[in-house]
Amino acid sequence: MSVNSIPVTNKSRLRYIQAEEALSHLMESGGYRPGDQLPPEPELARQLGISRATLREALRSYEQQGVIRRRQGVGTFVSPRRLYVESGLEVLESIEGLLAGRNVTVTTDQRHVREELALPKAAKRLALPEHACLTVITCTYLADGQPVAFLMEAASATLVAADVVDQAGTSILAYLMQHREHFALGPARAHLTPVLGTAEIRTALAVTASDPLFFLEQTVFDQQSHPLCYTRTYYVPDFFDFHVIRRSE
Question: Where does 85-243 sit in CATH, by number?
Fold first, then answer.
């Protein structure tokens, strides 16, 4: 056998890996969502440019991993995610509210509540003088033990004291919403974009440097348009899907 030749078993293994990668790319680029049915095997093999035998091997592997499920005589379906939160962005909601009622156990990890002096960006966001005292929270949220979101929040310490929100055990936004009669909550200005997290955030969410995250940055105002709190939340896309309802006029 030539030094440069590949054993048949290795060639088969290479085709199988390439088939898995091609199938994964098709599912992502084709917009397949949990519960969607994949095309029949002949069409799927043709789309991927592989034999049906290689396709079946890739499907068998994905079925064992729980990525898909096959129903005899019906077809192949994308498996529902164990936790899959779909939410609109039209209504202001805290991370606790977003995860509530999802039939999962929500816990927090590495929750730190502290007072800090406002740096220029935070001071501008909150319409405060530089070096004003802030209540700052950083926290990782877990669903059934898996990290799904990393939160950083800031508000004026004169508005919400650090020890008060620490004792409440919630995010600042959740605390404001629970006591909205005292804070006259108004609208929020938010931006959602995909990002790659810093080393700190990747560690907190157990993702790699190449894994994109949903990044939601928002400032929450009172009814007189005065900033109340500033939040930065990083969401793991495997667990969240955000949408916006658009009107025709």
Answer: 3.40.1410.10
